[in-house]
Amino acid sequence: MKKIVKSIFVLAISAFLLTSCEDEQDLKFITPAESFSIITPLTGDSVILNENTPSNPGISLTWSQPDFSTPTEIQYSVELAPVGSDFSNAQVLATTTSEFITVQSGQLNFAALVAGATPFVQSPVDIRIKATVGSSEPAYSNTITYLVTPYGCLGQFAVGAGIPSAGWNWNSPLNLICDDNVLTANVTFANDTFRFFTEEGNWDSGRNFPYYTGLGYKIGSNFENANDGDSNFRFIGAPGVHRLKIDENKKTITAFQGATAANSYWLVGAATPGGWSWSGSNESELGLIAPGVYEAVIRMNPAGDANFRVWLANDGGDSWGSPNKNYPSYVNDGYTIDSELVNANDGDSNFKYIGPDAVRKFKINTITKVISVD
After folding, report:
1. Which of 178, 118, 171 is nearest to 148 (CA)?
2. Tens-digit pLDDT profile for residues 140-165
3. Are the beta carbons of 76 and 129 closer than 8 angstroms?
4. pLDDT tens for residues 183-230?
């Protein structure tokens, strides 16, 4: 009997040791890596990216090898994140098994813009290296801050009941095309709410009405804060097709009626951004925002002569001969004119702007016969 018990005990011990050996084969005895560092570039190094050379190097990195204590292949990932962030929303620029890599300008440009870099302005982004071996815990290098001057801009999106073709879902969002930091789209608006987004399908990327006003944007009269709990935009203009523009350089948001500028008026003169010139689209559009109501959201400057005139047509070139109206023309037609606008008495009796140097809403209402500056 003792022999039987002893045999059973030996068999049990043998089975335990065999099982332990099998489990041991699946274990990874990887010692956590010691810290490792990016060698080049250094924090504060910079690059100016050019849209004509997207294949040129945007950043070339080298780094020291972490010590995982056992010879094994290490997988590296180059991560980029908004400056000062915790890398929870990092983008992976590249992966490699070497301790060096070069990322092309075009790829770096896109990643920098996604991370919040401002087009054509030197902007900081954070970069680090992630090292992994199999399923072991990753190790991370130090973080460097790289200064990137990107070009272009990212397209954006809009959804909401105020844009019937989109609605409050991501099945068919409005796509705003970006060119040199100016976003545009032709859109059919309804009198309802909507919101802008920087990432398609990502509700957390929304930009509501206070987001823009908080950055100093001047927003056209077709829009208001919906005050609906989410502070969305509400379209309050005439329903129909409008040319929507978000100018991130001038910090303005406008929507003019129609798919073209055929029905617009135009401002030209020293008080306007383009001065006395039609060259290069220097003229400022007074777009139709409602029947008989024209509006321009522009920076007006009282310096110097500060004079300007209203043109009723634009032939696409130097339109000096197109129909136009000066200050007395509107007075004689019975218009009430804002006190910040006076007769320039400059020989042509142009308008003269005497208000502050600021982005203003210049409006001509041909129905009520009022010219205002807000």
Report:
1. 118
2. 999 999 999 999 888 999 999 999 99
3. yes
4. 999 999 999 999 999 989 999 999 999 999 999 999 999 999 999 999
Distance CA 153, CA 175 (A): 14
pTM of the predicted structure, to 2 decimals? 0.73
Contacts of 38 (CB under 8 A, 6+ apart): 61, 62, 63, 127, 128, 129, 141, 142, 144
Q: Which of 101, 121, 145, 154 is closest to 49 using CA atoms?
A: 121
- Please spell the DSSP secondary structure of 30-64, one letter per residue: PPPPPPB-EEES-TT-EEE--TT-TTSEEEEEEEP
Q: In terms of DSSP bridges, do strands 75-82 and 91-96 run parallel, antiparallel, or are they unpaired?
A: antiparallel
**Position 211: which residue type?**
Y
Amino acid at 25: Q
Beta bridge partners of 47: 148
Question: Nearest to residue 106, comparing CAs of 161, 43, 57?
Answer: 57
Phi, psi dihedrals of residue 61, rounded to the nearest 5°: -115, 145
In the chain, what are the helix, strand and coil shares in percent, each to the nearest 5? 15, 40, 45
Low-confidence ranges of the chain (pLDDT < 70): 1-34, 70-71
Angstrom distance (rounded) from CA 76 to CA 112:
20
Q: Any residues with CB less than 8 A from the CB of 106 and at least 6 apart, and which?
A: 54, 55, 58
In angstroms, the CA 233 to CA 81 distance is 29
CB 198 within 8 A of CB 156: yes
